[in-house]
Write a structure and sequence with these properties.
Elements (H helix, E strand, L loop, with lengths): L5 E8 L6 H11 L3 E13 L2 E7 L2 H14 L4 E4 L5 H14 L4 E3 L14 H11 L5 E2 L3 H8 L10 H9 L5 E5 L7 E8 L2 E8 L9 H15 L7 H20 L22 H5 L1
Parallel strand pairs: 1-2, 1-4, 4-5, 5-6, 6-7
Antiparallel strand pairs: 2-3, 7-8, 8-9
Helix pairs in contact: 1-7, 2-3, 3-4, 7-8
Length: 281
Amino acid sequence: MTAVKNVLAIAGSDPSGGAGIQADIKAISANGAYAMAVITALTAQNTRGVHGMQLVAPEFVAAQIDAIFDDVRVDAVKIGMLGSPEITLVVAEALRRHQPPAVVLDPVMAAKGGDRLLSEAAVRTLIEELLPIATVLTPNLPEAAALLGEPELTDVSAMPALAQRLLALGPSAVLLKGGHLAGSMSPDYLASADLGLWLEAERTPTKNTHGTGCTLSSALAAQLAAHSVTRRDSAGLEAAARLAKGYVAQAILHADALDVGAGQGPTHHFHALWLSDHVSR
């Protein structure tokens, strides 16, 4: 029997369940891997916004990571919200110690409603300490602009060049997300040293897109683990990215089947597992 892959998510908690570590666990599970979680922060938030945040002590974040690696085989790691330079540094140090096969870094800097989740100092530590060990970096356009100190891109044709500038910061690959652009399509661009291709999906007209970044990066980590992708495996990277992108597109397409909150609701992580009549009961 083939062993189920184990994926560790390192991120903050969203008690409304649409983003953060809760979305990570759902997306990893829906993509066929066993999900584990290290908590970096507690937030008080719902679909309308973030009302408060409390960071976990950096040494306890490190203790959580070490406890997992001391006991469990980890096939991939997804990193989300970190919150401070100190937490960012201990996560980088722990991953350098343990050397997981694949690391997906989602540089979470703000919540969907605009609430800032990462300080300027933490962004600098992220660039210096974590980007060089990332297998795939998954920024949206505002995050890419912040990482490079540039104005936010508004022209889809400039995304490949932007991805190359992000590659120069150290990650092995970049999945640049174009969801902030206008238009009927949602264009992402996947780039590595020997790969450059578009991943597109039709845009679904819905407000329920809370946690899409968390969901995509976690799905990608699960697919990288499933395909045993190494840092220079272009074919495996492409296959994993296409499956993750397709999964998120379907999760958004079915998001309105859920009734969660009055603001920006979550995507439907288990759209392929729940029967339609189950949702309506």
